[in-house]
Amino acid sequence: VQLAESGGGSVQAGDSLRLSCATSGLIFRTYAMGWFRQAPGKEREFVASISRGGGSTDYADFAQGRFTISRDNDKNAAYLQMHRMRPEDMAVYYCAAGRSGSGSRDDSDYLFWGRGTQVTVSA
Q1: Rounded average pLDDT over 44-67
Q2: What's the whole-number mean pLDDT along residues 38-62?
Q3: Is 52 left (phi over 0), alpha (psi -120 to 50) or beta?
Q4: CA–CA gap between residue 96 and residue 86 (Å, rounded)
Q5: Which of 105, 22, 98 is CA-nearest to residue 63?
Q6: What is residue 25's DSSP assignment?
Q7: Residue 49 to residues 32, 39, 55, 69: CA-CA distances in angstroms?
Q8: Three-state secondary-structure class, residue 87
Q9: Using CA atoms, how far apart are residues 95 and 110, in angstroms rounded to an integer?
Q10: Cβ neighbours of 57 (radius 10 Å)
């Protein structure tokens, strides 16, 4: 099983960025997907999740209204669209495939993880 994030980079505050998560080796449509992030010196935190069918999403408070999680089960990929980015959004962003079909905020509920993609936001 492989998950590979892409789309990270350096942006300015207020800009937008779209992260992608390409997967292989799993039956993608049977897994909920999540995005997490970890900033230097901080714990990894939940960003957003989406159910296996895409009909249910969940967002951390800081992501609500600015970020959108989506998935394409035909392409075996998940996405995180981020708008109005802030310096505090700077972190390594990880995608993960969850054991539950409905998604979860608990990282222990996720079986497979990507290596992460760096997002830098300058003021």
Answers
A1: 97
A2: 97
A3: alpha
A4: 23
A5: 105
A6: S
A7: 7, 19, 11, 7
A8: helix
A9: 10
A10: 15
